[in-house]
């Protein structure tokens, strides 16, 4: 398959410049050959844009038309920059600079600051939220944790849109932006924040760009020096540039036009940070003679997924929609998307966990499955459901791979073995690189067979297994590579946060899923008020929500499930409606003239969607308040209400659970979570029916553990039969 997205991590370096072009489709080849003048690549999701631009750079370098040190490629995340550098190395163009905007600017700022300003560059503030809190306190404004985060985000937005504190209220009003606090109040906090930075001699990440722009504007000699070094520029994800980043890019370019930009207006989802697709959409106006290439061959997703993605965008409105790309799948047909309606959110989470367990049983690796939601607060109920189902998961945005303790320990061990060389007894009679890595990591917990179950033990093993797989790929690609070579590769990946794949279902927000892909994707919580989010008021804001869902759909290679719940909690009024974005796309939702080929896929109701539920909301059995959080609903009381738990029973249940976990070779939470044990100890069920009514005790666990649990609750040692009355 041409331009496939799946390939070995370390392919062989092409022998010639022409060999760099092998395997490119006609449009990708056109991009690679367009080495001069302004070039605009409009690249749809899954069309191989990174492949196209890295091969363009590599072909230019390998053919002698571009000098590696004269090229600067910029993107938006350290991971993307690291991946780009890795691909360029694999293509024989390792000397090219590939950085984020901030990284490139910081490097220039550090070098030129003594010459332009004098002295040392002020210390870079890693996290600005504490300084914003101090500024608010100085202004006698009380902010809770969420308000503090929102005001910090507003200050970041103001700075990347080049808005000074005094102008903030007027700019917010003109932009129809919903400020989290009174704009005059935010303006005051913003001004004090800037004053505190000056007083403490620190700068933030936005200042890195602002100060670089200032130096390049004021010091023409420094600007000329940078322009003499960098002759060719490539910008990935160009739809996400902010006005400040565009200003910096203009200063880097000067009066030249050797610029290649790559983007997709239909994937503009970060306007809240100041990103705008206008620069991409206006590129041909600013550069009338630009070469424009469209990439529409989708190598990632099946025709069924692509059909849904195209249908979703066909309903879009606005300027970005006018430039949408109609994707054409290059893959064999796969299963239709599945649309599922559930009675409530816990049932939706449990149904999703069951489907995921079935996919894993059918051979889909856990690391190739993702659950994507609109806001991070939705993750808790899915964490709980996956834990109850014994499915390993990882939260995207949580601890970084190279910061995990087991990965740091593995790196130390590999580095020590590399230094010791033949003097390390571990490596006696071990010849090839993968075998050496397996021998070293076996001292840290790696085994040839994974531990059963999930949890901390399995998570640790998966991290080490990811390093073993990386070593195997590295050795296949680099004949004669040594342990020292691998350690150097790991160091470079750690610096770029370019982590290998870890096996565990990914839980992530739609925003953080951008740039990633999985074999199976579950898009959950697709109701009005969540998708689009309730505070999306204007047409432009609603259209960005549609694009966010489009990004979610296009993350799926093969399996795609879209679901929603009619109420938040069990017994709640079924007043929710599926997202308006699904109208005309899901079966039975009516047709829209703009969806030419009609709805496709299967519509299902979750196992409990048609079941009779008690009327009314779930109430706290202590204070009578309405319960909304998954943990509270499991306990049937507010988290801070007094507990009538039988402490002795709880401890006996914990001891029993520990024994079961050891016997099964699984982490304790795969038997029952702490919250489930607490609920059992508070309600002391006497029958199977009472036990099964507790959230987290499904039919499978009732059948497996019910007799023991009821016996312990009855004060026995275990083994009593189940009474289902």
Question: What does this 3D model show about the protein?
Answer:
- The chain is α/β, with parallel strands linked by helices and 725 residues long.
- Helices cover 45% and strands 11% of the residues.
- It contains 28 helices and 17 strands.
- A seven-stranded parallel sheet has the order 13-14-12-15-16-11-17, with helices on both faces.
- Helix 12 links the parallel strand 6 (232-235) and strand 7 (259-263).
- Helix 10 packs across helix 11 and helix 15 (303-314) packs antiparallel against helix 23.
- The protein is globular, with a radius of gyration of 28 Å.
- The relative contact order is 0.10.
- The model is unreliable at 1-7, 592-597, 608-616 and 719-725 (pLDDT under 50).
């Amino acid at each position: 398959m041409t331009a496939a997205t799946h390939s070995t991590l370390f392919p062989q370096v092409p022998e010639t410049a022409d060999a760099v072009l092998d395997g490119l489709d006609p449009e990708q080849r056109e991009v690679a050959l367009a080495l001069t003048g302004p070039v605009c690549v409009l690249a749809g999701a899954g069309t191989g844009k990174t492949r196209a631009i890295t091969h363009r750079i590599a072909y230019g370098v390998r053919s002698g038309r571009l000098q590696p040190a004269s090229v600067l490629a910029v993107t938006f995340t350290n991971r993307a920059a690291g991946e780009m550098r890795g691909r360029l190395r694999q293509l024989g163009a390792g000397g090219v600079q590939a950085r984020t905007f901030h990284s490139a600017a910081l490097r220039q700022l550090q070098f030129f600051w003594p010459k332009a300003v004098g002295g040392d560059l002020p210390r870079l503030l890693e996290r600005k939220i504490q300084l914003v809190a101090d500024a608010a306190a100085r202004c006698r404004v009380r902010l809770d944790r969420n308000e503090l985060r929102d005001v910090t985000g507003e200050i970041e937005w103001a700075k990347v849109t080049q808005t000074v504190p005094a102008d903030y209220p007027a700019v917010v009003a003109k932009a129809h932006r919903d400020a989290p606090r009174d704009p005059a109040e935010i303006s005051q906090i913003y001004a004090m924040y800037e004053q505190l930075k000056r007083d403490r001699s620190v700068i933030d990440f936005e200042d890195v760009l602002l100060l670089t722009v200032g130096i390049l504007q004021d010091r023409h000699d420094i600007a000329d020096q940078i322009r003499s070094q960098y002759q060719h520029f490539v910008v990935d994800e160009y739809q996400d540039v902010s006005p400040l980043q565009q200003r910096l890019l203009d200063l880097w370019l000067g009066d030249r036009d050797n610029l290649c930009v790559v983007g997709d207006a239909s994937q503009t989802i970060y306007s809240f940070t100041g990103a705008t697709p206008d620069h991409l959409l206006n590129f041909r106006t600013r550069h009338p003679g630009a070469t424009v290439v469209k990439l529409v061959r989708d190598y990632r997703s099946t025709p069924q997924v692509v059909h849904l993605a195209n249908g979703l965008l066909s309903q879009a409105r606005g300027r970005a929609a006018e430039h949408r790309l109609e994707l054409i799948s290059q893959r064999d047909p796969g299963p239709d998307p599945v649309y599922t309606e559930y009675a409530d959110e816990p049932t939706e989470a449990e149904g999703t966990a069951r489907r995921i367990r079935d996919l894993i049983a059918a051979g889909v690796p856990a690391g190739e499955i993702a659950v994507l939601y609109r806001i991070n607060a939705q993750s808790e109920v899915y964490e709980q459901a996956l834990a109850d189902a014994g499915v390993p998961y990882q939260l995207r945005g949580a601890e970084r791979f190279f910061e995990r303790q087991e990965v740091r320990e593995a790196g130390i061990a590999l580095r020590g073995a590399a230094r010791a060389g033949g003097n390390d007894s571990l490596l006696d009679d071990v010849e090839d690189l993968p075998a050496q890595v397996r021998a070293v990591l076996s001292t840290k917990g790696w085994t040839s067979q994974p531990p059963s179950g999930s949890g901390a033990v399995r998570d640790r093993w998966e991290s080490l297994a990811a390093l073993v797989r990386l070593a195997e790929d590295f050795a296949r690609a680099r004949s004669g590579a040594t342990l020292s070579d691998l350690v150097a590769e790991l160091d470079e990946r750690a610096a770029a946060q370019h982590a290998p794949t870890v096996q565990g279902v990914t839980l992530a927000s739609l925003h953080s899923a951008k740039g990633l892909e999985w074999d199976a994707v579950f898009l959950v919580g697709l109701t009005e008020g969540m998708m689009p989010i309730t505070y999306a008021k204007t047409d432009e804001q609603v259209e960005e929500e549609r694009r966010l869902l489009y990004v979610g759909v296009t993350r799926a290679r093969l399996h795609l499930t879209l679901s929603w719940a009619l109420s938040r909690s069990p017994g709640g009024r079924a007043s929710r409606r599926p997202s308006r974005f699904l109208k005309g796309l899901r079966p039975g939702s009516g047709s829209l003239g703009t969806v030419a080929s009609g709805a496709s896929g299967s519509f299902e109701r979750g196992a409990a969607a048609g079941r009779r539920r008690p009327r009314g909301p779930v109430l706290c059995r202590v204070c009578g308040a309405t319960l909304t959080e998954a943990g509270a609903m499991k306990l049937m009381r507010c988290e801070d209400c007094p507990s009538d738990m039988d402490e002795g029973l709880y401890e006996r249940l914990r001891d029993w659970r520990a024994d079961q976990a050891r016997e099964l070779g699984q982490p304790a939470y795969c038997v029952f979570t702490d919250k489930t044990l607490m609920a059992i100890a508070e309600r002391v069920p006497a029958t199977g029916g009472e036990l099964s009514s507790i959230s987290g005790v499904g039919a499978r666990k009732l059948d497996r553990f019910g007799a023991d649990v009821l016996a312990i609750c009855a004060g026995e040692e275990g083994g009593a039969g189940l009474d289902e009355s």
